[in-house]
Amino acid sequence: MAEEKSNLEDELTFSIKNAWEQSDEEELDDITEFAEKYKEYITESKTEREIIDNTVKLLEKNGFVSIQECDELDQGDKIYILNKNKAIAVAVIGNKEVTEGCHILASHIDSPRLDLKARPIYEDNDASLALFNTHYYGGIKKYQWVSTPLAIHGKVVKEDGEIINISIGEDKEDPVFAVSDLLPHLSKKKQSERKMKDVIKGEELNVILGGKPIDDDDIDKKVKINILKILNDNYGIKEEDFTSAEIEIVPSGPARDVGLDRSMVGGYGHDDRVCAFTSLMACIDLEPQSKTSLVFLFDKEEIGSEGNTSANSRFTESVFQQILAKSKGDYSMEDYRLTLENSNAMSGDVNPGVNPSFKGVHDLRNAGRMGKGIVLTKYTGSGGKFMANDAHAEYVAYIRRILNENDICWQTAQLGKVDEGGGGTVAKFLANLNMDIIDAGPPLLGMHSPFEIVSKVDIYHTYKAYRAFLEAE
Ligand code: MN
Ligand code: MN
User: Fold this and answer.
1) Out of 165, 272, 362, 420, which residue is the most buried by the measure of CB atoms under 10 Å away?
2) Rounded distance, CA 132 to CA 123, Å?
3) What is the CA(277)–ligand 2 centre distance, in A?
C-alpha cells in the first residue's frame, strides 16, 4: 500500500531534483572543468569591453570570423558581429533557410559598479588624500562597496583618438583602491541612524587614490598633482583626458571556489556573465544543427537597456538584416518578417536563489534554489506583472520538452513574493520583435554585490540547457 502511494506521488507531483545527485562521476568532472574555464573568463574580464575583447579571442580560437570577412554566408559558417566594442552577436549558420527562424540566446555583459565622474580627481586637504569622485552604475547596495579592495579598469581616449587601456589592481604586485567606511566609534550620530540605502550615500563613494605629496613647494594641491604625475608618467594622460574616458571601479581579485566542498564559485559579475559564458560555450560546442544559432551579448541592461549598445537598440535588427543580406543576397521585407516571427529565444539572466537568512522575501514554492539546475522564469516584472515578459504556455511547454528530453535539471521561479520587488531582463525587447522568448538562467546568492555566488552544477546545467535549445529542430 505504501509503495503504491509513493508511485502515485512520483507520477503526479512535479519534483525538482538536486542536480548534484543526478550527476555520475564523469559529469562531476565535467562540471568542475567547466567551472574552471568560467572562473578564468570572469577573472580576466571585469568590464563589458574586456568581456568583448576576451570573447572575440575565444571565438577566433574556435574558428569564428568577423562577418566583415565574409562576402556571403553558407551553412556551417561561424561569424560574429561587433557593436561599438560593447555588444556582440555570434552566429552559426544552419542548414535551414534563415527565414525559417533562428534559435537565439540573449544575455547581458554589463554589471553594477562605480563609474568615474567626468572630472573625478580631487584632493581633500583636511584628509590629506587624493580621491576619485564616482557615480554608481546599476542597482547596487552602496554600503557593500566600502572597505573592500577595488581595481580600476577601463580606457581613456585622448583628444587625438589615441586609446589608453588601464587595468590596475588585479596583479599581485599592483596596488588596490578602496572607499573607506566610518569607524564604529564615531558612527553613532552621523551614520547609525541612517536608513539602509543611505548608510553610504552616492556622494560618499569616493575612492582613495593616494596620500603622498609631490616634493615641490610651489604647488598647492600636492597629493593630487603627485597622482596626476604618476598617471602622466605611466600612461601619458592629463586631467582633461578623464572627460573622454570610461573607467570602472570594480572588485579586485579573481573568482574563487566557495565552500569546503568547492561546490560554488564566488566572484564579481556572475550577473550576467555566467549566462554570457554558458551561451557562448553552447554556441562554440554545438553539433551541426538545422536552424541558425544566434547568441547576443548586450550592454546596458543594468540601467534599463538604454542606448545603442543595449538590447533595446536597432543593433538587434541590424544583425538579422546583415545575416539575411549575406545568406540570401537580395531579401524582401517578407523574408525579414518571417525571420523574426519564426525565431525563438531564451533570455539568459540570473535569478535569486533562496537566501537562508531572508526566506521571507521568497515564495518558497516558486523560488530558485542553489544546486537544482537552471531556473525557468515564465514571467518577470513587478507588481501586477508590469514591465514583464510573459512567455506563452505553448512556448514554455516546448522549452520544458527540450530540457526533459536532454536530462537537464531545471526548476521554476519568480523574482520573490508578489509585491516584494521585481525586475526585468532583455527578454521584452526581443519579444517586441515578435518572437517567443523565456527567461532562463542559474540562481545566485548576493546578486549585484561585489561577491556573488553561483553553484557549479547550475552553471553546467545552464550550459547544457542552452546547448540543447540551440541544437533543437
Ligand atoms: Mn541580469
Ligand atoms: Mn542585474
Assistant:
1) 272
2) 9
3) 16
Distance 276 CA to ligand 2 centre (A): 13
Question: Helix, strand, or coil here: 403?
Answer: helix
Distance of CA 347 from the midpoint of ligand 1 (Å):
10
Distance CA 120, CA 245 (A): 11
Helix pair angle (456-471, 393-405), 10° resolution:
110
- The SS3 of residue 319 is helix
| Residue carrying the nine cell digits 540570473 | 350
The answer, yes or no, to whether residue 1 has pLDDT greater than 60, is: no
> What residue has cell string 539575411?
324
- Looking at all shown ligands, the one closest to residue 442's CA atom is 1
CA 272 to centroid of ligand 2, rounded, Å: 7
What does the pLDDT read at residue 170?
Answer: 98
Average pLDDT of the residues in 386-392: 92
Angle subtended at Cα 174 by Cα 121 and Cα 142, rounded to the nearest 5 degrees:
50
Question: CA-to-CA distance for 281 and 47, rounded, in angstroms?
Answer: 19
* Ligand 1 centroid from CA 90, angstroms: 19
Centroid of ligand 2 to alpha carbon of 302 (angstroms): 5
The confidence band for 195, taking pLDDT boundaries of 50, 70 and 90, is very high
Residue 301 CA, ligand 2 centroid: distance in Å = 7
Secondary element (H or E) of residue 459: helix 456-471
Average pLDDT over residues 350-366: 95
269 C-alpha to center of ligand 2: Å? 9
Give residues whose Cβ lies within 5 Å of ion ligand 2.
271
Mode of pairing for the β-strands spanning 436-441 and 245-251: unpaired
Instruction: Please give the model's pTM, rounded to 2 decimal places.
Output: 0.97
CA-CA-CA-CA torsion sign (405, 93, 294, 54): positive
pLDDT tens, position by position, 204-263 = 999 999 999 999 999 999 999 999 999 999 999 999 999 999 999 999 999 999 999 999
Ligand nearest to the CA of 439: 1
Distance 83 CA to ligand 1 centre (A): 20
Residue that has been written with the C-alpha cell 574563487 in this structure: 256
Domains and CATH numbers, the chain: 11-111+268-471 (3.40.630.10), 113-251 (2.30.250.10)
CA of residue 406 to ligand 1 center, whole Å: 26
